[in-house]
Amino acid sequence: MQKTLILAAHPNLAASVVNRRWLAELDKHSGYTVHQLYPAYPDGKIDTAAEQCLVEAHDRLVLQFPVYWFSCPPLLKQWFDDVLTYGWAYGSQGKALQDKTVALAVSLGAPAADYRAEGKIGCPLTEVLRPFELTMRYCNADYRPPFTFHTIDSNAAYDDAARALIDQSAADYLEWLKHLS
């Protein structure tokens, strides 16, 4: 069985609804290593060697985070800068991610319809997430299409219908992970 590392990057998981629910669902199942960046590095100082060893110990890498300001939380960006080093992740000797399955699992507060040329965002989500795809392809990883969940705004009130959607997204996330290869 392939080992999957879920690198979760949410700066305020206690206030999260979707990402917290996804992680709670993952806790019920074996085969997934969940590594939360913000609790691991409250001072923002990433242990590059430890992170590289963690990635190397897994067959698949999933980066889970909320999309805001059309990017990732700052500590995940720092993780990219600190961990994906020349000679390890890229360059003539950089083979750590070569052919490793990598994908994103992202939550978004805007409806999916907003992510199109004529929508509020003005471009498809694939364009918003392109820097992640390019980074992983540059590292010769096997980048896969993301798992996405739209429309639960962190500032919104939650009713039974919203909770049912979130619960379904957790089940869908788990199913997506099972077929990620």
Automatic annotation (TrEMBL):
<dbReference type="InterPro" id="IPR029039">
    <property type="entry name" value="Flavoprotein-like_sf"/>
</dbReference>
<dbReference type="InterPro" id="IPR046980">
    <property type="entry name" value="KefG/KefF"/>
</dbReference>
<dbReference type="InterPro" id="IPR003680">
    <property type="entry name" value="Flavodoxin_fold"/>
</dbReference>
<dbReference type="GO" id="GO:0010181">
    <property type="term" value="F:FMN binding"/>
</dbReference>
<protein>
    <submittedName>
        <fullName>General stress protein 14</fullName>
        <ecNumber>1.6.99.-</ecNumber>
    </submittedName>
</protein>
<keyword id="KW-0560">Oxidoreductase</keyword>
<dbReference type="Pfam" id="PF02525">
    <property type="entry name" value="Flavodoxin_2"/>
</dbReference>
<dbReference type="GO" id="GO:0003955">
    <property type="term" value="F:NAD(P)H dehydrogenase (quinone) activity"/>
</dbReference>
<feature type="domain" description="Flavodoxin-like fold">
    <location>
        <begin position="3"/>
        <end position="167"/>
    </location>
</feature>
<dbReference type="GO" id="GO:0009055">
    <property type="term" value="F:electron transfer activity"/>
</dbReference>
